[in-house]
Amino acid sequence: MTIGIMEVVLMGARGLKNTDHFFGKIDPYVVIQYKNQEHSSRTARVLISLLMSIKLNDIGQGSKPLWNEKFSFRVEYPASKVLGEDNEKYKLFLQIMDSDTFTHDDDLGQTMYEKTDEQEYGGWKESQVDY
């Protein structure tokens, strides 16, 4: 068995639906899972000055967030055959969430990438999308 590191670079998103009907823009973040490993991005925010005041306030980036973050996952090849895990051995799950202060975070969508033998996109393809 070979053990290595898979690096995932989370760049950004576009066209996200706005679930913050009362307070304006959404505050998106991404949860990335590979097997039993999980990482969360920072919440995408932009700093703006309101009414030319010196005090800065955080406002969500809305439907076009940028993260530019890198995450590392430990991988094994060939994948270990843990009971019930065979179908999940080379799947990367991404879930986009809207961070809310006073209520539960909202699910904005999710997708899954599967490892393939093809070389295009590093051998990964998007296989399931739910927006």
Automatic annotation (TrEMBL):
<dbReference type="GO" id="GO:0046872">
    <property type="term" value="F:metal ion binding"/>
</dbReference>
<dbReference type="Pfam" id="PF00168">
    <property type="entry name" value="C2"/>
</dbReference>
<feature type="domain" description="C2">
    <location>
        <begin position="1"/>
        <end position="129"/>
    </location>
</feature>
<keyword id="KW-0479">Metal-binding</keyword>
<dbReference type="InterPro" id="IPR035892">
    <property type="entry name" value="C2_domain_sf"/>
</dbReference>
<dbReference type="InterPro" id="IPR000008">
    <property type="entry name" value="C2_dom"/>
</dbReference>
<protein>
    <recommendedName>
        <fullName>C2 domain-containing protein</fullName>
    </recommendedName>
</protein>
<keyword id="KW-0106">Calcium</keyword>
